[in-house]
Amino acid sequence: MQKSHIRNFCIIAHIDHGKSTLADRFLEVTGTIDARHQKAQILDSMELEQEKGITIKLKAVRMAYKKDNQEYQLNLIDTPGHVDFSYEVSRSLAACEGALLVVDATQGIQAQTVSNIYKALDANLTIIPVVNKVDLPSSDVEKVMNDMCATFGFAKEEIMKVSAKTGEGVRELLDLVVDKVPAPDGDEAANPRALIFDTFYDEYLGVVAIIKVEDGAFPYDLIATRKRIKFLATSSESVPEDIGILIPTRKSIDVLYTGEVGYIATGFKDIKQVKVGDTVTMASAKNVESLPGYKEIKPFVFVSIFPIDNDRFPDLREALDKLSLSDASLSYEPESSSALGFGFRCGFLGLLHADIIQERLEREYNLQLISTIPSVEYDLTLNNGDKLAVKTASDFPDRSRIKEVREPIILLTIVTPASYVGGVIKLCEGRRGIQRKMEYPTPERVIFEYELPLIELVYNFFDELKTVSSGFASLDYEFLEYCLVDVVKLDILVHNEIIDPLSRLVLRSRSVESGREILKKLKEILPKQQFKVSLQASIGGKIIAREDISSVGKNVLAKMSGGHRERKDKLLEKQAKGKERLKKVGKVDIPQEAFRHILEA
Fold first, then answer.
1. Quick check: 42 and 55 in contact, CB under 8 A?
2. What is the DSSP string of 240-295?
3. What is the CA angle 59-65-70, rounded to 5?
4. Domains of the chain, earliest start first
5. Is 457 helix (H, G, I), strand (E, B) or coil?
6. Which of 16, 19, 11, 40 is nearest to 28 (CA)?
7. What whole-number distance in Å separates Cα of residue 427 and Cα of residue 420?
8. CB 233 within 8 A of CB 293
9. Which of the residues 80, 163, 493, 586 could staple to 168 if both were Cys, CB 3.0 to 4.6 A apart?
């Protein structure tokens, strides 16, 4: 295919604005998918994506399209819409020359709409604005188009009106993609060079790299002639097992030309040999420069994950290795706990990201897992001047050694209908938010910008935002800076023994409240013992809250019928001494199931 007839584009939008449905119509109109195999969300092949109705992984697919009797090759990349998967969006943009910005005609501009358009502009993409769901009775197309013009500066006549569900306007949109999206650049005569923008693992072919060819071409006869390809970041080399395209299933082809999107099955069984964002070229090529890759993504939320059966620890390691291959934003490192055994401390981009990864581990790899309370990374300066990054309470040093603690602050963007302004402001101020901006792009819609501690977002902020806005508000966020904060390590003691997995870092001003809340949950969940068990919350050895679990009652006089009072007193005294001895030497074993209930509560 000539380079001038290739169009690489992606679909970007807020969650649930119809990206995947629009992709379905594109596949239908272009005849890429046989009618017998057509189904809803066909590019969302993961079981979790089908269940939750969201896109988790970017998907690339090649479509053949004819306009004015000329064949065109359209390479579509469907992207996620949730803020936790924004890294997938940035990778998609790097492999495209154009983007369809889709806005729901019933919901209007949302937080991710704003975020995504700026990402597309930074990537110098041609943006085609699209209003979707125009067929619904509740849609207000004119109002949404006016909002898009006022907020982003589009001209009304350049906004396309479509219904991804019925197919209205879809063919016209594809025509516009051909007319407006520029053909890819690249030197067809240069050494072959391609950007790896996604990877996955195949049991037979090893690591499969999804690539966009920037220069030159990768012919299929590389396999027959046993020519080697090279990955510049890792300096690893291999003979490819297969070269082809995604339609959306894999199909081998003779050659991948400049500007085309496809895959190379590397044959690597070691997943660390290939990295997302790397450049692949021929091993024989000299002085080949790396393509601009992606910035290192920094995890926001940290959760420790342990297998309930500790014999499955190697299986958990292998599963995380394979998941991280296709999800470069997932980070993990081994850790151990006296209560939970061996596991991994994992870094995620958000709570949904953490939930999705844990569900995939349990479903796809048949693992039973227990996870700890989410935390964020604190930046500590010790009295001797040393710097320390702390992700969990167990790593937090004695407070007397610490000079200052800094916590991550995010820039939070909230888009909400104007009628919910009061509830949103109250929520943000109650979570230590500092308002930076409040704009009315239209009389009915407000855009807030708040500086907010990341830890406040972790603890049910999204749920509370949906509650105060009746589900209409949306949010997006990005890291801003680290700021001073007064946090302390809250230890939980069960029968005078510190239980590490239950320790957490809390604001000093909220420590007593947090301690009492945890102890109440513990009291409800922990089974009774033969002796009274004390539950305590402490900071630096000082007890700030306490609850007691009474002992299991046993009537030692039940079998006595009559008898002298002194005999009964003697039995009761013996029981009291036994309980006192048990209290001193007894140990409370917290079952794994109890940990699971406590940490999920």
1. no
2. -SEEEEESSSEEE-SEE-TT-EEEEE---SSGGG--TT-EEEETT--SPPPPP--P
3. 145
4. 3-180 (3.40.50.300), 193-282 (2.40.30.10), 301-371 (3.30.70.870), 378-484 (3.30.70.240), 488-600 (3.30.70.2570)
5. helix
6. 40
7. 11
8. yes
9. 163
CB 152 within 8 A of CB 123: no
Read off φ and ψ for residue 490, nearest 5 degrees. -95, 115
**Kind plus residue range of the DSSP H or E element containing 584:** helix 565-585
CB 515 within 8 A of CB 490: yes
DSSP string, 309-355: SGGGHHHHHHHHHHHHHH-TT-EEEEEEETTTEEEEEEEESSHHHHH
Q: Tell me if 396 sits within 8 A of 485, measured CB to CB.
A: no
What is the rounded CA–CA span in Å between residue 263 and residue 256?
9
Contact yes or no for 545/506 (Cβ under 8 A): no
**What secondary structure letter does DSSP report for 500?**
G
Contact, 183 vs 3, CB < 8 A?
Answer: yes
- On the CB side of 22, CA atoms within 13 Å amount to 33
* Other residues' Cβ atoms within 10 Å of the Cβ of residue 199: 23
Is the CB of residue 346 less than 8 Å from the CB of residue 377? no
Weakest mean pLDDT among 27-31, 266-270, 405-409, 566-570: 566-570
Which residues pair with residue 489 across a beta bridge? Answer: 505
The first and second tokens of residue 576, run together, are: 């009291």
d(CA 310, CA 146): 58
- In 86-189, alpha helices (H): 86-94, 111-122, 141-152, 170-180
Q: In 3D, which of 490, 499, 496 has the Cα closest to residue 595? A: 499
pTM: 0.75
Gyration radius of the chain's alpha carbons: 29
pLDDT digits (tens, 9 = 90+) for 253-308: 999 999 999 999 998 888 788 888 888 999 888 888 888 766 666 788 888 889 98
Residues 6+ apart with CB under 8 A from 249: none
Q: Other C-beta atoms within 10 Å of 528: how many?
A: 12
DSSP-assigned letter for residue 14: S
Q: Helix, strand, coil shares of the chain as percentages rounded to 5? A: 30, 35, 35
Question: Cα 489–493–496 angle (5° rounding)?
Answer: 130
- Residue 408: beta bridge partners? 482
- 3-class SS of residue 16: coil
Element (H, E) at 535: strand 533-539
Give pLDDT tens digits for 338-397: 777 889 999 888 888 888 888 889 888 899 888 888 888 999 999 998 999 998 888 898
Closest by Cα among 514, 505, 510, 479 to 378: 505
Decide: 533 and 495 in contact? Cβ < 8 Å: yes
Q: Which residue from 396, 354, 483, 417 is spatially nearest to 107, judged by alpha carbons?
A: 417
Structure tokens, 325: 């291959």
At position 79, the amino acid (one-letter code) is: T
Q: Token pair of 572, please?
A: 């009761």
